[in-house]
From TrEMBL:
A GO molecular function held by the record: transmembrane transporter activity
A single cellular component GO annotation: plasma membrane
Annotated PANTHER family: C4-DICARBOXYLATE TRAP TRANSPORTER LARGE PERMEASE PROTEIN DCTM, SIALIC ACID TRAP TRANSPORTER PERMEASE PROTEIN SIAT-RELATED
Family: Belongs to the TRAP transporter large permease family.
Keywords: Cell inner membrane, Cell membrane, Membrane, Transmembrane, Transmembrane helix, Transport
Main localization (coarse): membrane
Record localization: Cell inner membrane
Annotated TRAP C4-dicarboxylate transport system permease DctM subunit domain residues: 11-434
Organism listed in the record: Natronospirillum operosum
Keyword Membrane: yes
Membrane topology: Multi-pass membrane protein
Function of the protein: Part of the tripartite ATP-independent periplasmic (TRAP) transport system.
Assembly and oligomerization: The complex comprises the extracytoplasmic solute receptor protein and the two transmembrane proteins.
Protein name as annotated: TRAP transporter large permease protein
């Protein structure tokens, strides 16, 4: 059996194992070990596991993963998500659809210090959904805007997906962070524009009849500039500390993660939200998330080496070249595959499976890998809100704990945001400078 045949069988077997319910990292490791044993010998396979572990996880860079996870979880505990939403709610109280826009704005700010979409979805389901429903917004819109805007956490830096892509593509994580700023702002702005359009063109999708629902009228809450500043200052200070130090070059990504985690700890302590029990819980969850990601990266490193031994990536690159496809034909096929995979597989797994095969092709076409990473992250994010997997949708459902709002209603609510993300993805694909301008300027 040739190396190419072994490579094809390995990819198919891995997808079958994942479909049958095996954890992605175990499937990657198992298939890689079997394939390398068939290509060479079992002894080499075990040596490659050790080499992959040493080479992929010994880097100082990987310290950024648990630090940013810890920072995000501490921010969730501190309750600044609610404070941020309160500020946006007051500022936009007189705009039709203002609470929806407030949710997007607060999610964008919250995303800039968490980097985890699931955290944003869980927090704003508790904070924003009850408030929107109380003011007469339909349940499907209320949960839809939370699930839809939660994906900003994976694009606006710091982002765990950006870290994973940077490691797999051997690109600067700091540069990947900076590259996500303009696309993140564009996506958040597009979400706000869609909410305004819905409020005028499809008011029935957004609002219920207040005479039937008993919704309250918007009451102007007395807020002073000092009160607003006191609510927004902590999160702005943390953003400035982490992102300012990172973009100015004063901090490396890992140092920024450490400073951010310490700042989030002080914030949680200052608000008296962090008990010893909660702190222990946060540390345990940080370890669980970080180890899961790092083990996935280890498995992906072994998988990449196995594919290189089979010659499959190079063969696929030569086949694509022989088809005489243009760069945009290839890009369209690639993004479509990513979006379809998002219907059944989680975000990190998609990147670990696809990128080792696709990156050589992208380099063959002369694509900028920073830009390629940004559009990959956006395409992967779309999978967070597409059925049947849609992890952000299920996070909202679990956090809401309301039987009157079935999962089907949440998926209906995210449709406008799904379509918006597709449009933004097309724009980012057509204009690479939107992703690369800041990345190469600083």
């Amino acid at each position: 059996m040739t190396g190419l045949e072994i490579g094809i069988i390995a990819v198919v077997l891995m997808l079958v194992l994942i479909y049958l319910g095996m954890h992605i990292s175990i499937a990657l490791m198992l298939v890689s070990l079997i394939s390398i044993s068939m290509l060479r010998n079992p002894e080499l396979a075990t040596r490659m596991v050790a080499a992959a572990a040493n080479d992929s996880l010994s880097s100082y860079l990987y310290g950024v993963v648990p630090l940013f996870v810890l920072m995000g979880l501490l921010v969730v505990i501190s309750g600044v998500g609610r404070d941020t939403f309160d500020v946006f709610q007051w500022l936009l109280r007189k705009i039709r659809g203002g609470l929806g826009i407030a949710t997007v704005g607060a999610n964008g700010i919250f995303a800039s210090i968490t980097g985890i979409s699931v955290a944003s979805a869980a927090v704003f389901t508790k904070v924003a959904v009850p408030e929107m429903r109380r003011h007469g917004y339909t349940p499907k819109f209320a949960v839809g805007v939370v699930a839809g805007s939660s994906v900003l956490g994976m694009l606006i830096p710091p982002s765990l997906l950006m870290i994973v892509y940077g490691v797999l593509a051997e690109q600067s994580v700091g540069r990947m962070f900076i590259a996500g700023i303009i696309p993140g702002i564009i996506l958040a702005t597009a979400f706000c524009a869609v909410i305004l359009l819905l409020s005028w063109l499809r008011p029935g999708f957004m609002m219920q009849d207040k005479t039937q629902t008993g919704a309250v009228e918007d009451v102007a809450v007395e807020e002073t500039p000092l009160t607003l500043f006191s609510k927004l200052a902590p999160i702005l200070l943390l953003m400035t500390l982490v992102l300012g130090g990172l973009y100015s070059g004063f901090f490396t990504p890992t140092e920024a993660g450490g400073v951010g985690a310490f700042g989030a700890l002080l914030l949680a302590l200052g608000k008296r939200r962090l008990t010893p029990g909660k702190f222990y819980q946060v540390l345990g969850e940080t370890g669980y998330v970080a180890v899961s990601i790092l083990f996935l990266i280890l498995a992906a490193s072994l998988y990449s080496r196995m594919l290189a031994l089979t010659g499959l990536p190079m063969s696929i690159a030569q086949w694509v070249t022989a088809l005489d496809l243009s760069i945009y034909h290839f890009l369209a096929m690639y993004l479509l595959i990513i979006i379809l995979m998002g219907c059944i597989i989680d975000s990190v797994s998609i990147m670990l499976i696809v990128l080792p095969i696709v990156l050589p092709i992208a380099q063959h076409f002369g694509m900028d890998l920073i830009w390629f990473g940004v559009i990959t992250v956006v395409a992967v994010e779309i999978g967070l809100i597409t059925p049947p997997f849609g992890i952000s949708v299920y996070t909202v459902k679990a956090a809401l704990n309301d039987k009157s709002v079935p999962v089907k209603e949440i998926f209906k609510g995210v449709v406008p945001f799904f379509l918006t993300m597709v449009v933004v993805l097309i724009i980012l694909s057509a204009f690479p400078a939107l992703s690369t301008y800041l990345a190469y300027r600083y």
